[in-house]
Amino acid sequence: MVKIILSGCLGKMGRVISNSIANFPSLSIVAGIDRNDDTSVGYPVYSDIKKCSNIEADVVLDFSRPETLSSLLQYCKEKTLPIVLCTTGYSEKELYEIEKASKEIPVFRSANMSIGINLINNILKDISAMLYENYDIEIIEKHHNQKVDSPSGTALLLANTIKNAIPSETEFKKGRDGICKRDHKEIGIHAIRGGSIVGEHEVIFAGQGELIELKHSALSREVFAVGALKACEFMYQKEKGMYSMDNIIKK
């Protein structure tokens, strides 16, 4: 049995994970971390991961906020535990902190835990350079009105994959305003926030007389929970280093 400490356990995704884990007989949640208090989730909840010093765990799963990162990494380094990071909106400094931690412990990080999104991301690695010369590239992402970071971590994941695949110089254009023609080297990124949209990402390759679209729609948060729990299974007793959804898809 792989024992999980779930950070952000009382948030929207934390609650979905708590419900979805019933479909994973090899996994159990032994403790939760959240700034709120709730005794109805079936496991003890603490306000700080430091209070979990006596909890036996095999992996830490984080679906919280970037500000919890340092304390989670410190705890995992002290306990030599793998960590699965599903939080988005990290700063450059925090991304460096994650990379540095992977030299000491196993770190799994993905901007999106959906298998479908990561398959699309792999397709983009193969087709972006081929299409770039004759197509303009735009990314549109849609999320609920409570999402804090913009553009989404997933939109940036897709955008960086496209940019890294193209040998020519490109640049990100986040939104459009003013009177100016589009420059071909731009990779457009547009964010929509409204209602209860779980998550939609669309990559458009617009050519002369034709349009190629790759689109993923998350119909339920459960798709992210399933990916996160699969990552916990995968990370059990892994060696130090950096891991991602690619390791799961290609294993």
Automatic annotation (TrEMBL):
Its EC number is 1.17.1.8. InterPro entries: DapB_C, DapB_N, DapB_N_CS, DHDPR_bac, NAD(P)-bd_dom_sf. It is an enzyme of class 1 (oxidoreductase). Keywords: Amino-acid biosynthesis, Cytoplasm, Diaminopimelate biosynthesis, Lysine biosynthesis, NAD, NADP, Oxidoreductase. It comes from Clostridium brassicae. Belongs to the DapB family. Homotetramer. The keyword Transport does not apply. Residues 2-113 form the Dihydrodipicolinate reductase N-terminal domain. The active site is at residues 143, 147. It comes from the Bacteria. Its main location: cytoplasm. Pathway: Amino-acid biosynthesis; L-lysine biosynthesis via DAP pathway; (S)-tetrahydrodipicolinate from L-aspartate: step 4/4. Residues 116-248 form the Dihydrodipicolinate reductase C-terminal domain. GO terms for molecular function: 4-hydroxy-tetrahydrodipicolinate reductase. NAD(+) binds at residues 8-13, 86-88, 110-113. The keyword NADP applies. Catalyzes the conversion of 4-hydroxy-tetrahydrodipicolinate (HTPA) to tetrahydrodipicolinate. PROSITE patterns: DAPB. It catalyses: (S)-2,3,4,5-tetrahydrodipicolinate + NADP(+) + H2O = (2S,4S)-4-hydroxy-2,3,4,5-tetrahydrodipicolinate + NADPH + H(+); (S)-2,3,4,5-tetrahydrodipicolinate + NAD(+) + H2O = (2S,4S)-4-hydroxy-2,3,4,5-tetrahydrodipicolinate + NADH + H(+). It is found in: Cytoplasm. This is 4-hydroxy-tetrahydrodipicolinate reductase. (S)-2,3,4,5-tetrahydrodipicolinate binds at residues 144, 153-154. HAMAP family: DapB.
